[in-house]
Write a structure and sequence with these properties.
This protein has 4 helices and 17 strands. The protein is α+β, with helices and mostly antiparallel strands. Strand 13 and strand 14 form a beta hairpin. The chain folds into 2 domains: about 120 residues, Diaminopimelate Epimerase, Chain A, domain 1 (Roll), CATH 3.10.310; about 140 residues, Diaminopimelate Epimerase, Chain A, domain 1, CATH 3.10.310. The longest helix has 15 residues. About 45% of the residues are buried. Helices cover about 15% and strands about 45% of the residues.
Length: about 300
């Protein structure tokens, strides 16, 4: 199967976009379709044997809807994600190129997201996405910590090194944020801790993990461990969750610049309760991926 694709990056977080219309199985419903999309994701996202990226967006036209696009999002391990703040801006850039609209609405598993082209900066297009309101109720995140009440902050999460005070939220997908004094301490293996927390039994659907260093009331630095991916250069939902967590703990205001390894993102948790995420998008490549379901799929 020769699959047309486009690849974008948003602050170092990269995504491949394909259309369901170009897949022999893309428009079928049911578990078999999901399994085949998961296999495609593992193959095309592989860094050495595929095109390579953090996530795959499979686009389709929503039936009977007024908005332009529906997407399904898959991580590098083949798991399906509810939402991606950086990825949805990449999907918006892909859609804007086709429709020439400056504002688009995209359907995700986390609901309808409105994305707007707001400018150009050093060759990158800037998009702002309304991420919606953070979910703070433990059962809806979901988080199964004993005695946890909304908002879940400074919760003593038991881990192999003792306990960690964590703030737990959802931006349509679950997040666990930890505040740290340094991100460069050689004695602190945040990647190992991120992997452990991602699979912690108190997170029934696993979780994304953010390690947050507060720089000022309006600036934070973050490292990301993403569910089903591992370390990423940045994360849109992770940056949003980190700002919500910092504000809930009184460490910052609600409008914050997030410094990531891939660049800066702007997050504004508005007084109305919604979170707006603004950041750059750039197209990286386009072409055709030669896919053989048996020959390309890496071992699980």
């Amino acid at each position: 199967m020769k699959i047309p694709f486009a690849k974008y990056q948003a602050a170092g977080n990269d995504f491949i976009i394909v259309s369901a219309q170009d897949l022999e199985f893309g428009r079928r419903d049911g578990r078999a379709r999901t399994r085949r999309l998961a296999s495609l994701a593992r193959a095309i996202l592989a860094r050495h044997t595929g095109v390579g990226a953090d996530g795959l967006f499979v686009t389709s036209s929503p039936a009977g809807r007024t908005h332009a696009l529906a997407v399904r999002i898959f991580n590098a391990d083949g798991g399906e994600a509810e939402m991606s703040g950086n990825g949805i801006r990449c999907a918006a850039a892909w859609l804007v190129e086709q429709t020439r609209r400056s504002t688009v609405e995209i359907e995700t598993l986390a609901g309808l997201k409105r994305v707007q082209l707001v400018g150009v900066q050093r060759g990158d297009r800037l998009f702002r996405v309304n991420m919606g309101s953070p979910i703070l109720q433990p059962a809806k995140i979901p988080f199964a910590g004993k005695g946890a009440k909304a908002p879940v902050k400074s919760y003593p999460l038991p881990v192999s090194r003792g306990t960690e005070a964590v703030t737990v939220t959802s931006m349509g997908n679950p997040h666990c944020s930890l505040f740290v004094a340094s991100l460069d301490n050689p004695d602190f293996d945040w990647r190992a801790l991120g992997l452990e927390i991602e699979r912690h039994p108190l997170f029934p659907n696993r979780t994304n993990v953010e390690f947050v260093r507060v720089l000022s009331r309006s600036e934070i630095e973050v490292r990301f461990w993403e569910r089903g991916v591992g370390e990423t250069a940045s994360s849109g939902t992770g940056s949003s969750a980190a700002v919500v967590a910092a504000a809930l703990n009184g460490l910052t205001g609600r409008r914050v610049t997030v410094k990531t390894r891939g660049g800066e993102l702007e997050v504004n948790w508005t007084k109305s309760g919604t979170v707006h995420l603004t950041g750059p998008v750039r197209m990286v490549a386009s072409g055709h991926y030669e896919y053989d379901e048996e020959g390309n799929a890496p071992p699980r």
